[in-house]
């Protein structure tokens, strides 16, 4: 069995969410059941890039993770695209046997039994600005599958007021999931630089929004990789 | 009994370390047994500012925390200066009874029984660039006092190669403490703006340093409050 892999890179720090700052090797899966308007990983989503995705066995992926990490156990993040549309159970089993930790980031549209084997499951339902709509029954199935993961969190990207209000509803559906909010990044062209001041301004806006609203539940975090590297790939 | 308080502010997000992004009210204690060369809170450290520190009872501090948080339970961070040179046990007892969570950040030079009542104890031993030197016996006493805290971590600020090497030794002394590294900020004048690009560059340097070294243990995080607000006080 082979998996479609858009890129494998690292180690570098996880730039966002619950594991922010954590040294990580990223395995980015090719293919997605969503097409968010502001997607920052189109090269792993749009089928126009399909020819750039490499079919790899779990043994081949694992060899590359081992090479990049020098054989030192660290966190491997399964991202995409939506990694849940493929079967990562064999890779996770291989890596965990060697002491590696596994995280996975997915929108929560497709549930997998291997969610329960993860160290960190990040469920990231997409708000209205994405142009997608959430199937909450499918999402609940993901939460159920992830019950035995070491940690499971919800992360929501916020572009505007509508997204902010939506995030409150999403949290109300799953109040037991620790919540992370992330200001949206409208500058996703890998060729154009990102102004760190813009990123700071968006973080300030979202922070002020939640604080003046008296909503102290979510942690609010920027994308550090965008701060450091803009939208460059492979970092 | 009164405490010397330099400022109480928030809620705003915690800008650094284990609770990065967490909505927090900060209680900054006045007074410190250290005088780090790059201290970013001199107004709470240098006795020249002593006249600006307000003597407050724990009831008065608690009233202000309640007012700022609108009575909604959140995380209260005890910072300084070195908060451990004063007795915060009564404030912590008051706040915890109301469902608030408490974090404390201290260099680890003075141990307190109330460390064990904290939700988060951040021990931040100071590297060579600070001009201070660590009493490791006193530090170990802090670790012992914090054993019953919900989480206890080590955070180290890194300005240069010497600090980086020193952090490895510090980690080796207390390998069970989750480790956070933070690039140093040389621009601590509250009157002068901070260039977000400089902050990004320092984060990139430290990330590259650890990754190329194959040191995947620490989480590496910037100071988000500096990114957003520069060195302005009260945010």
UniProtKB/TrEMBL annotation, chains A, B:
Reactions the enzyme catalyzes: 6-carboxy-5,6,7,8-tetrahydropterin + H(+) = 7-carboxy-7-carbaguanine + NH4(+)
Ranges where the Radical SAM core domain occurs: 19-231
Cofactor(s) of this protein: Mg(2+); S-adenosyl-L-methionine; [4Fe-4S] cluster
Pathway: Purine metabolism; 7-cyano-7-deazaguanine biosynthesis
Binding site for substrate: 13-15, 28, 79
PROSITE patterns: RADICAL_SAM (PS51918)
GO molecular function ontology, one term from the record: carbon-nitrogen lyase activity
GO terms, biological process: tRNA queuosine(34) biosynthetic process
Annotated residues for binding of Mg(2+): 41
Cofactor note text: Binds 1 S-adenosyl-L-methionine per subunit.
Binding site for S-adenosyl-L-methionine: 38-40, 81, 124-126
Key words of the record: 4Fe-4S, Iron, Iron-sulfur, Lyase, Magnesium, Metal-binding, Queuosine biosynthesis, S-adenosyl-L-methionine
Tagged with keyword Lyase: yes
Residue numbers binding [4Fe-4S] cluster: 32, 36, 39
EC number: 4.3.99.3
Assembly and binders: Homodimer.
Family named by the database record: Belongs to the radical SAM superfamily. 7-carboxy-7-deazaguanine synthase family.
Record's protein name: 7-carboxy-7-deazaguanine synthase
Species assigned in the record: Phaeobacter gallaeciensis
